[in-house]
Amino acid sequence: MVQYTLKQLYYFCAVAEQGGIAQAARALNLSQPAIAQALNKLEDQYQLTLFLRQHSRGVELTSQGRQLYKMAQELLLQAAQQETAMQLVAAGKSDTIRLGCFHTLAPFYMIPLIQQLKKEHANIAVLGEELRQDKLLDKLLNKQLDLAVSYDMGITNSALTKSIIAKKTPHILLSKQHPLAKETSIRAQQLQGQPFVMFDGAGSKDYYQNLLRHLNLQPDIALASTSMETVRSAVGNQMGFSITVMQPKTNISYDGTELISIPIVDACPDLAIVLLRLREVEPSPAMRILLSQYEDYA
Fold first, then answer.
1. % of the chain at pLDDT higher than 90
2. Has this prediction a pTM greater than 0.85?
3. Is 94 inside a domain boundary?
4. Residue 216 lies inside a defined structural domain of this protein
5. Across residues 228-234, what is the average pLDDT?
């Protein structure tokens, strides 16, 4: 029998994020004793010390607290997803598909497909979730997702089936103010000695490092970010060049700087975008409909 409650985990996360019981109580519009009691019970149940309580500086997570915080976030997210699924059942949706997508691909290969399915099959609901590749594969292998869309960056697990949706060719990403911005194509050696802005998502770092080696480039890393929009902003502000696979419809970064994407003259291997599912799980009728939509979308 599970001893903890979701409410305890919710209060615990709120205290960790707000920096103290008083701050969490204000944020949640609850009394301090209610939150303190829930935390004390959680610690007593599992013989844990979750916080270092310092009157002058609020609270600080212990090593046990940091571990539990990570687990609690995942459990609360799963609970919220199950709540959504139950609401869909109550609303008369006959089937629900749990779809995961590599986070930078979601605007291209998740949102349009969800909307299309919604229009054509109102009885099917899709619960979409954008994740980095390691989390995506972990959730798929643990049957927390039904389907996943990702770049094929070293995915070799034999428990998964892969269907190629598209193949994309890398391009050089530059500021519109870069001296090479007017070129119609660029040789890798033209970038020799220039700093590189790296997208540093799980799985992506190895891909970019291998691609740079393939192009015989060894640039200094000006910035590494897990956000593609931060990468675009850094390039737009002339911190360096980058390499991109997907081509957004806009050449403007969030901060308003202009960018340009230019083909690479040197031969580069294409990067496949794949649809993944567990080999042992037979697709449901709803999954087959979504699978066929991805085939048509390709």
1. 69
2. no
3. no
4. yes
5. 96
104 within domain boundaries: yes
**Residue 88 confidence (pLDDT):** 61
Question: Is 141 within 8 Å of 134 (Cβ atoms)?
Answer: no
Specify the residue for token string 């609270």: 59
Do 51 and 176 belong together in one domain? no
- Using CA atoms, how far apart are residues 259 and 238, in angstroms rounded to an integer? 10
Residue 52 lies in a domain: yes
- Domain containing 258 equals 170-269
Question: Model confidence over 59-91: pLDDT tens digits?
Answer: 889 999 999 999 999 888 888 877 776 776 666
Among 150, 162, 177, 148, CA closest to 241: 177
Q: In this predicted model, what pLDDT tens digit does every residue of 107-123 receive, in sequence order?
A: 999 999 999 888 888 88
Torsion over CA of 195, 199, 204 and 206, rounded to 10 degrees? 20
Same domain, 175 and 238: yes
Buried b (16+ CB within 10 A) or exposed e, 20-34: bbebbbeeeeeeeee
Q: What tokens appear for 124 in the block? A: 């099917």
Token couple for 51: 């916080």
> Looking at residue 94, what is its pLDDT?
54
182 and 260 co-located in one domain: yes
| Closest to 11 (Cα-Cα) out of 46, 47, 50, 45 | 50
Q: Could you give the count of Cα atoms lying within 13 Å of 49 in the half-sphere of its Cβ?
A: 5
SS3 (DSSP) at 171? strand
DSSP lists the bridge partners of residue 164 as: 274
Looking at the 3D structure of the chain, how many domains does it have?
3
Residue 252 has what DSSP assignment? B
Q: What is the CATH number of the domain that holds 282?
A: 3.40.190.10
pLDDT at residue 227 in the model: 92
